[in-house]
Amino acid sequence: MRWVESGDVRLAVFEEGDPGKPVVLLLHGYPDTHRVWDEVAALLRDRFRVVRYDVRGAGRSTAPRDRRDYGFDRLIADLGAVIEAVGAPRVHLVGHDWGSLQGWEALGRAGIRDRLTSFTSLGGPGLRQAADFTRHGRRRDVAVQRLKSWYIGAFQIPVLPELAWRTVLPGIVSRALGAPPRPGHPADTLSRDGLNGLWLYRRNMPLGGSGLDPRVPGVPVQLVEATHDPYVTPALLAAVGRWAPRLWHRRITTGHWAHRSRPEAVAGMIAEFVEHAEGAPASRGLRRAGAAGAAGAFGGKLVVITGAGSGIGLATARAFAAHGAEVVCADIDLDAAKRAADAIGADLGGTAYAAQVDVAKSDQMEDFSRNIISEYGVPDIVVNNAGIAVAGPFLDHTVEDWRRTIDVNLWGVVHGCRLFGAAMAERGEGGHIVNVASLAAFAPSIVLPAYSTSKAAVKMLSDCLRAELAGQGIGVTVICPGFVSTGIAGNATYTDDGLRQGAVQGLARRGYPPERVAAHILRAVHRNQAVVPVNLEGKVGYALSRISPRAMRGLARLSGAVRNPKLAGNDRPYERR
Known about the structure:
Number of helices: 24
Number of strands: 17
Oligomer: single chain
Helix content: 40-55%
Strand order of the largest sheet: 1-2-4-3-5-6-7-8
Mean pLDDT: 90
Distance between the termini: 75 Å
Shape: elongated
Largest sheet: 8 strands, mixed
Number of domains: 2
Structural class: alpha/beta
CATH topology of the largest domain: Rossmann fold
């Protein structure tokens, strides 16, 4: 630790890491100290020179004699003094909460802005940008943000905030961290820090009506939005793009103290941005954050699709690529996967990669997911599409028919969800999983018992997973097409080969192309839909299954008798429940 003088205060400054590396300066918020960054600093110090300090009146730093000396002029002077003391011509500034507000203010001041190579904001825009949003934003959005910012007005009240900090507020803060308290956070000085920091609000909040220029010229800015932050609305953060032309807007699925609850994700975002500002190629996360609205609806996103060599999988791969995504075309047939990937490059000018995997085999899926993540990064969207069918009555199905159907149709989906879902959750930036089921998921069939059972299980798995992963910002959709003109009927296994010709001809006559299913998949991801029945029979079947399951069982018996007269001899009455 070293002491840095700034006016009448002494700032406690802490440094770690290689002095020859780029300087990352972590600026804490209210009512924290530099210790709030402990976990993130530990992850960054091997790659950068990490500098932290306790702001005036917090932690080990002293408070000004005049409590009015918490204005931005003094705060920015403190920041400049620290930068001078560490001997760095330029630094990469990272701010959280009030540290973020100070960072945005620094960007608006030419003297200090020239010392910043980049700025990462965790916790919101600056007061200048917020003031512009308040004046020009949609009335409803502004009203919602005002409700979330209720504490700003409360802190202006005399006496009561001081009383709260001496009694109940320290305990409330300790319980609201989103991570277990640990030595150093909350600090032992929390009550005193809270009292001193009230003057940050009382001295600076009038800036909101001052009309100062909100533009941020020159400096690259990474805005990290904590999607569960109770104090900042997405509308306010979205408005920042108007004033920061070099902006990368990223999202992390956690609460206000993201650096405590998700330190690995936060440190990773900081490191990627700093290295890019130093000249390294942009990471996939940064490309995705900078591509919003510029390269198609899915620009910069990585999409992994199984069974992409033909049918629905192939059409979905092409549709995502046409909308800007990079696509991994995975299939048990490597040649088919290569043809799909090559065609995306040749026909669409897109980027696609081919991979071979048997989704039924857990070891192959583990290697596949590991290789994809290592080479291309964590996928943003995974489409578990690979599937097979065995057609014929239940009593004609062998154990091997059942095993193979369940292994591919259900276990293949389980593997994809488990492996890629875990990686998405760990990354912390959300994502989407699409599981392709079928009309058979809710329409019983006496000629497709194994297939229908597996697809019904996929639907239930999707419902369960959607509930579990919602808090991680990961959407889960189950797609349930009716009859689609693909090659599945020709590739199916039949217990009675006399069924093959009718099935193949029936799907061909239906004339519903897989490209229309792909369009439903893209729309479902965009809208985060839960269950998507596709085409007329899919929608009617889904509605009828919810209204009258008994009628669906009757239709199953009737359709089976029509397709195979040998099944018509069963004269048992329908179930009555």
